[in-house]
What does this fold into?
Amino acid sequence: MTHAEDSDQMAAVQPNDVEDTLAPLLNPGSVAIIGASDNPARIGGRPLRYMRDAGFNGRIYPVNPNRESVQEIPAFATIAEVPEPVDTAIIAVPARAVVDTAEACAAANVKAAIIFSAGFAEMSDDGRRRQDALAAIARTTPMRIVGPNCLGVYNSATGFFGTFTSTIEAGRPTPGRVGLVSQSGAYGSHLSLIATLRGIGIRFWVTTGNECDVDVAETIGWLARHPDISVIVAYAEGVCDRDRLFASLALARARGKPVIFQKVGRTDVGAAAARTHTAALAGTDAVYDGVFRQYGVHRARDTEEMLDVAYAATFGTFPASRRVGLMTISGGVGVQMADEAVERGLEVTPMSAAAQARLKTLLPYASPRNPVDITAQAFNDLTLVTTNLDVMLAEGTYDAIVAFFTFVAAAKAMVGPISETFREAKRRHPNCLLIMSIVGPPDIVRRYEEAGCPVFEDPARAVRVVDALSRFSEAFARHTPPVALTAPAP
Amino acid sequence: MTHAEDSDQMAAVQPNDVEDTLAPLLNPGSVAIIGASDNPARIGGRPLRYMRDAGFNGRIYPVNPNRESVQEIPAFATIAEVPEPVDTAIIAVPARAVVDTAEACAAANVKAAIIFSAGFAEMSDDGRRRQDALAAIARTTPMRIVGPNCLGVYNSATGFFGTFTSTIEAGRPTPGRVGLVSQSGAYGSHLSLIATLRGIGIRFWVTTGNECDVDVAETIGWLARHPDISVIVAYAEGVCDRDRLFASLALARARGKPVIFQKVGRTDVGAAAARTHTAALAGTDAVYDGVFRQYGVHRARDTEEMLDVAYAATFGTFPASRRVGLMTISGGVGVQMADEAVERGLEVTPMSAAAQARLKTLLPYASPRNPVDITAQAFNDLTLVTTNLDVMLAEGTYDAIVAFFTFVAAAKAMVGPISETFREAKRRHPNCLLIMSIVGPPDIVRRYEEAGCPVFEDPARAVRVVDALSRFSEAFARHTPPVALTAPAP
It folds into this structure.
């Protein structure tokens, strides 16, 4: 099942006002930067530089009472003097000036504010009071607020980098079908960088920090509704609005969009650390386990697992059963993959006797049961790859096949024919997840990805992903009555 | 505890004849290649090419009755005509000719034979009989035999590449302190390649295949005795000689050499696949678990875990306790690392009140308990890194510290001072394992490794390695009475 777009069902769960209030934040036509710095290395200077470097297609208004221009763009003394009510204002001023600045933004009809500044509820009682004042502004005016104590947001498709995370300098994100929301700014930045280095395209990236208004739960719902997003990645230390989380997860599931969620603070020590970090209450961990299971969310333990599943999910094939076929050029890896699959509850169903007999005539010393060991001989006779794959697919048994080729499939002479074999197989069996385990440079890996196959260096990680994606399929298939989405705090 | 070298104890467990019979195999002065091919791409042509490319420092004798020379080296018609009794003969002839060839080798006083050919016990009853004949030669003559159905061996320090694995072409192994033995040739090749790409130096590499004579168990013992090896990595589908395995594992432990073992065939499906692969009997899995626990072996599930632990172990610091300090520039990652550590049974002991107070004065909004969150501010004031690390080490509580710096520590201006801080810390606290979690290119990672710190991109993987290395320390510390080493099959 892929990306269901049942618009009737969506109408029932999605009040338009929710979508409208976050759209200016994540797709702004105009951006003000309050506390804009002429120094492109400073926190107040970076968003301007990143947006210009990325060719942001909207209007930018630096606000700085001490300068005529900032980084060669005319500056304004106050937000009130900016010639239009901007979609998004970035607030990069000292903590004590933040509340006044936010009030001025609301008065200037700014639609959304992103507050970088730290020093609120995570630090002191005084900070808690100032954060409450910000929450009151968000509640009593139409202006939405992200933060405080966050690293901002980006939309990689428009070049809107409303963030000061220097990860952007280590590798600019590329647009893709993944939306990412993280309570932690630094960890969200780390995730963004690792995703970018792995070639995973993050379209929308939101760090929510102390969550005086916009939170992880609401953002998941917004991403679930966005037509360009098909995979949602979330990190949180605590979730306050339980109903909003449930509604967003239900919506994502109804739309066939997998949610991969890392909820930390599983242990007492971790939960205590979370309290001092984003002032989050981690809550009872078993409750989260239950919620995630109910809504078909994949709970990830770490960065690698999170991005493995997200990456594979972007290919859009979720196996309809847990039956997996294993093809290998190394018998040893076949055994390893079989162990991993069985221990994860996947079914390593044997091939039919007829199919086994057919493969045995092709390669007498191969092992055709499942795992299907085609041995390195397959690379002296590439028709063995094609025929073995055809026979496995013709069985009609497997909704996923993992093929281990290590570095051999990255050899120049092999890439063309093997990727063509898999492209053709994918064309004829679009609902079968075909994952390849290959060691090779990024350009070679890309060739196999373009054929429709996720690629993993490690065969065990490839098998784990089959487990994760088949569980999404089970969750999407469950009957899901429309759920009323709780509106954001009025 | 690092690399104990108690020679008295060793004398008790190590009959010299065992060492002697494998030394010519792995450090040969002369090598014959029977079935040598002039085509450097063929199985019989590759070892010659690999050895010449790597500058093998011994004498090479191609054996081929149809050619005067092979790859420009004078050839001999038979092994009997080779002008000296060679240390190692590589046998790359059709399966049916293998037994006669092996007999001729033994008659020519060859000290060890490596048999590439497949088609023995893994294939048929006839193959089983031919394999028994090989075993008989090994038993009744001084000649040792590796294989059949193996990919050979290498010694990366001398350029002896007695193998046809084409992984050598994807990245030539570099000498290091790791010894690797794998029953599976293709998986052993995959491991060798991944290790090489990760910068892990494998000195000796042995694939044992059908194990008619030399097996994984004996090789572990040989590696445990070798002075240049400090970490042993093993892969097996089944182990036949239980006593030999026990003796080898006891020896490795007595010498303070960690063994990382991947034993597959954990499940019924996996065990069945193992039978058709190397004809191995996987045995009851729980027995292996018990044996590994008893001898302090780290049982790894997959390639990544295996090489993570091996890599970190090469740094030679095994934490004497399970108390770990966590330093981070991301509060979110601090929470994640704390969860991972606690769930693995590590102790995330809080800092003393005095130490916390001291750090709090340095950085009021930091969180100094443990995890110690120094925030990104540390990179505007690098003395914060130094002071925080000093204070954590001065506590005397932690035998391991994991420091998460993501890509920030890879920035040009940061590498020098941060690596110097850690080098100095390591100098003053050599028994404390300092692991860094950094995202950066290989040359930057190398700088931190040279300071004495293993580097992991993923902080969760870094924490898991602390668990693994502290368990080795516990195993090494246990009282271990000398164990009589069972001699190889007489």
Observations:
- Chain B has a mean pLDDT of 91.
- The first strand of chain B starts at residue 30 and ends at 34.
- Residues 7-313 of chain B form a domain with the Rossmann fold fold (CATH 3.40.50.261).
- Chain B is about 40% helix and 15% strand.
